[in-house]
Amino acid sequence: MKNEVMKLLNQRVSLRRYQDRPISRADMDTILEGAMRAPTAGNMMLYSIIKVEDPQTKLALSKSCDHQPFIAKAPTVLIFCVDYQRWHDYYMLSGVKEELDHRQETYQAPQEGEFMLAAMDALIASAYANIAAESVGVGSCYIGDIIEHCEIHQELLNLPKWVKPVSMLTLGYYPERHKQPTSSRFAKEFIVFDEKYERLTHDQLETMFKERASKFSVNNKFQAKNFGQFNYFRKSGTEFAKEMTRSMKAMLEDWSN
Fold first, then answer.
1. What residues have CB less than 8 Å from 49, skipping those under 6 apart?
2. Are β-strands 47-52 and 76-83 bridged in parallel, bridged antiparallel, or unpaired?
């Protein structure tokens, strides 16, 4: 018999339709408290959460995040950002640079390693928010497209140099009589390995993708001949994927220079 947490995890779906009512303050407090109880490197909490409910901001995000209208209709949007700005500012307040000058040492501004550490903090926090939301009947959908168009989001959200968005959750109550089925996952044998990584053989790959490949149709807009081709053209070989890569490189360059 599964425990209550596992029941929540197994019933969770990517929800893109919501009841037309705001999330209660009590439920939002639960969601944010859950996020802030997430594991964090050195208890530094290297992330910030921006809660967006303004219709115009949500509309702008629905356009900049790969033109997804449902984002604008979500009662609340949470944006999880890597945030080293607070610690940098606190170090300056604490006289770290002056002390380093006295020691004839150079201040080390946040670099790529700090970005990755903060990104892990932010992503874990978003996962905890997701679980906390499910516990109070609030559905969500992850939006990775917040990484795109970093210049637009930097201005829209008033982000300083060492704050960058890496994850976004749309949130809202499940519609009445919601029956959306949960999506399947790959079998554990293809994802979890003991002690060392194991590269899958051709036969294992065929078995792993068998269920998804069985639903593939040759009548598709990409003119793909099989599921592998279809998924590539749908995800990796797209303009939004190219923009995401461009934007990610721009964020890292701005972060470390």
1. 32, 35, 78, 79, 80, 81, 125, 129
2. antiparallel
Residue 177 pLDDT level (bands cut at 50, 70, 90): confident
d(CA 191, CA 193): 7
pLDDT digits (tens, 9 = 90+) for 6-26: 888 888 899 999 999 999 999
Dihedral, CA atoms, 83, 87, 92, 98, nearest 10 degrees? -120
Measured over the CA atoms of residue 72, residue 153, residue 127 and residue 234, the dihedral's sign is positive
Closest alpha carbon to 251 in 149, 145, 106, 171: 149
Q: What is the pLDDT of residue 192?
A: 96
Q: Which of 44, 118, 33, 113 is nearest to 78 (CA)?
A: 33
* Full-model pTM: 0.94
Q: Which residues of 119-149 are buried (b: 16+ CB within 10 A; e: fewer)?
A: bbbbbbbbbbbbbbbbebebbbbebebbbbb
Domains by residue range for the chain, with CATH: 4-181 (3.40.109.10)
Please determine, for residue 1, whether its predicted confidence score (pLDDT) is greater than 60.
Answer: no
